[in-house]
Amino acid sequence: MYDWLTEHKIPLGLWLRDFVDLLTTHGQGFFDFVSLVLGALIGGFTAALLWVPPLLLIALFGLAAWLVHRSVGLVVFIVGALLLVTNLGYWTATMETLSLVICATLVCVVVGVPIGIAAAHRPWLYTAIRPILDLMQTIPTFVYLIPTLVLFGLGAVPGLISTVIFSIPAPIRLTHLGISSVPPALYEAGKAFGATKTQLLFKVELPYALPTIMAGITQCIMLSLSMVVIAALVGADGLGKPVVRALNSVNIAMGFEAGLAIVVLAIVLDRVCKRPERRSRKG
Amino acid sequence: MAAVEFRNIDIVFGADQKGALRLIDEGRSREEILSATGAVLGAAGVSLAIERGEICVLMGLSGSGKSTILRAINRLNEVARGEVLVEHKGSKVDVARCDEGTLRDLRMHTVSMVFQQFGLLPWRTVRDNVGFGLELRGDLSAAERNRIVDEKLAMVGLTNWSEKYTNELSGGMQQRVGLARAFATDADILLMDEPFSALDPLIRDKLQDELLDLQRRIQKTIVFVSHDLDEALKLGNKIAIMEGGRIVQAGTAEDILLRPANAYVAEFVKHMNPLNVLRGTAVMRPAASLAREGDAVMLDKSGRVKVKVDSEGRPLSIDLDGRAGLLAKADGEAGVIDDALAHDADCIVAPVDLRLKAAIELKRHTDLPILLVDNLGRLAGLCDDDEIYRGLLRRLDG
Q1: Interface residue A207 vs chain B (CB under 8 A)
Q2: Per its UniProt record, what Pfam families does this chain match (chain A) (predicted)?
């Protein structure tokens, strides 16, 4: 009865495939270059983190937490949790994951914050990118895992790219929110004293929006961390790998331990990144 | 030379500027322009000159266009037509048309601004807020900047608060920071957009007094926006009353109280207490209109009370029906007089800017006629019962 409707299928999927094919044939050089740079970035970070003796690094984490939050309980928790992870034998994997998260967050900030600023200054731009951001956050991850795999090859880089696609909307949205909620009075005060556009951005808009942007970055870190298992599917090293392996071999023990390590890392990152209570801001 | 001069400016918010300007020329109202073009009339045909060292208050209800034209002075609002001439580094600059570089220079050196909601940066300390304008200018060393900031903080009495964040301060203190920030760039022209409206009445009154006090020392040109007539009358050397984007009357406080230009202004001033505003000049019978006989000026119709004046016109003595009387001097706009002196005197000599309130008190106290003299001591006019009553009834022409 609905034959007329199904008779001629619109080849949407095929079009996209052809598009990706087109990219691979004509843009291979570019993608290889990106792959090389990002690969070196992650590799460098991982090497650096693994070069430091674990105990020293754990002590450094504890110190950082103390400097930011001045809370003994938090320091004890962080040091204890990281020691537990080391004891379970997941130190290397944890550092690989941390490196992936740091790199993904870096890329997200470097790309996302300027996009957020630009969108806040140009309402039409935000209207244009909003559906794209929605799409990036709702489309199942596996769907864009396939083309990234084709374009960037197996390994950490497609994992990183997928992670960035998934988590970059957070800093973009929150930067946009922060910048566009700068009170007109502050903007006018800047202008009235002769601020240039650049001065307005760096002396009025960004300082005002900073707490919101930081919230976006914290969110971005958490979203990146939630992608580690997916990233492992395309060959990225880290805590995702034992989880995937445990799933394939129905290994409850390994799955639980690796999962616990992810949770520990998530809590540590969340607590360290969360900014201490800021002075209330009125008027 | 006027420090700021509006020459026939129109300000329109919205896309259809041309259409709106055409309707302005036809004399249409704001509502008609809005429904026909979708553009909002900000100001129409505004011309006003503000002299150097003067406090000019732009007065009106909200939406009357007072802030709109204030913001045209440093081009926070664009002018659709007309000129806004501002004295900048010795020459006149048309702010409405000047290039970006000149505009920035003018904003950094000549015109500074105080905002209703203070417009302070909450992540900066008081010190860094006050130094904001200087920092944007970028032409001073940090030490020099700190010196200026300290000086301005002392001026507004916030020396001990320099390292606090602005949200730790009360509203009145925050606005003092706003004032210090505006003073810091040493701009000659100060724009104040309802600076005291967000403060409670007692603090407002105090800051008004402080502003007047500061103004006596620094002599800036101040353009002040207010919706409060009391404030306007207290601060303004000149007051411009606006309605629907147009200036309906501009003049001194006395002009506005005694000769309201239309029903709108009359309604505004109806509930004002004229005693605080009116001065001798506004109610006196001018010396020129008094009958003269040689060097004697007649104070009453029958010519029985005469004042002898010297060649410059300074009163020398008084003659009451042939008897020589005594002149007693009252000082200042408050009319301070020595009690014993007043007891023996037959006539009081007071400065011409004597407040009407002080004149009434003198009359009640002594029941003597008051002669007003200008600042060179020359007879300017007579202020007796009749003149005072007329002033109170606000009828000068009767």
Answers
A1: yes
A2: BPD_transp_1
Q: Does the pLDDT value for residue B130 go beyond 90?
A: yes
ipTM of the complex: 0.78
Residue in A196, A208, A283 nearest the CB of B167: A283
Place of tokens 């307005």: A200
Chain B: give the shortest CA distance to residue A29, in Å.
44
Q: With b meaning 16 or more CB within 10 Å and e meaning fewer, what string describes B210-221? A: bbeebbeeeebb
**Paired tokens of B341:** 């002196």
Q: Specify the DSSP element, H or E, that contains B47.
A: strand B40-51
Round to whole Å and give the CA distance between A117 and A213. 10
Q: Enter the DSSP assignment of B259.
A: S
Residue in this structure with the two tokens 């999927």, named with its chain if needed: A13
Whether the Cβ atoms of residue A137 and residue A169 lie closer than 8 Å to each other = yes
Half-sphere CA count of B256, side-chain side, radius 13 A: 32
pLDDT band with cut points at 50, 70 and 90 for residue B384 = confident
Helix axes A91-121, A156-167, angle to 10 degrees: 40
| pLDDT score at A277 | 53
Compare CB distances from B165 to A183, A185, A279 and report the shortest one's residue. Answer: A279
In terms of DSSP bridges, do strands B55-59 and B221-226 run parallel, antiparallel, or are they unpaired?
parallel
Is A194 within 8 Å of B118 when comparing Cβ atoms? no
Of B341, B355, B349, B231, nearest to B281 by C-alpha is B355
pTM metric for this prediction: 0.79
* A280 has a pLDDT exceeding 50: no
Euclidean distance between CA atoms A70 and B281, whole angstroms:
70
Could you say which residues from 292 to 311 on chain B have a Cβ atom under 8 Å away from some Cβ of chain A?
none
Per the CB < 8 A criterion, the answer to whether B4 and B13 are in contact is no
The DSSP line for A45-66 is HHHHHHHS-HHHHHHHHHHHHH
State the amino acid at position B123 in one-letter form: W
Which residues in chain B are contacts of A192 at CB distance < 8 A?
74, 76, 107, 111-113, 191
In this prediction, residue A118 carries a pLDDT of: 96
> Is A189 within 8 Å of B121 when comparing Cβ atoms?
yes
Residue A15 class from Cβ within 10 Å (0-12 exposed, 13-18 middle, 19+ buried)? exposed
The closest alpha carbon to B175, from B221, B129, B133, B236, belongs to B129
CA end-to-end span of chain A: 66
What's chain A's average pLDDT?
89
Long-range contacts of B146-149 (CB under 8 A, 24+ apart): B148/B184, B149/B180, B149/B184
Residue B169 amino acid letter: L
A208 to B121: CB separation less than 8 angstroms, yes or no: yes
Task: Give the pLDDT confidence of B229-255 residue by residue, as tens digits.
Answer: 888 888 988 999 999 889 999 998 888
Q: Which of B112, B124, B166 sits opposite A193 (nearest CB)?
A: B112
Summarize pLDDT for A86-105 with one digit per residue, the tens.
Answer: 999 999 999 999 999 999 99
Q: Is the CB of B105 less than 8 angstroms away from the CB of A185?
A: no
**DSSP string covering A194-252:** T--HHHHIIIIIHHHHHHHHHHHHHHHHHHHHTTHHHHHHTT--STHHHHHHHHHTT-H
Record: contact B115-A207, CB cut-off 8 A: no
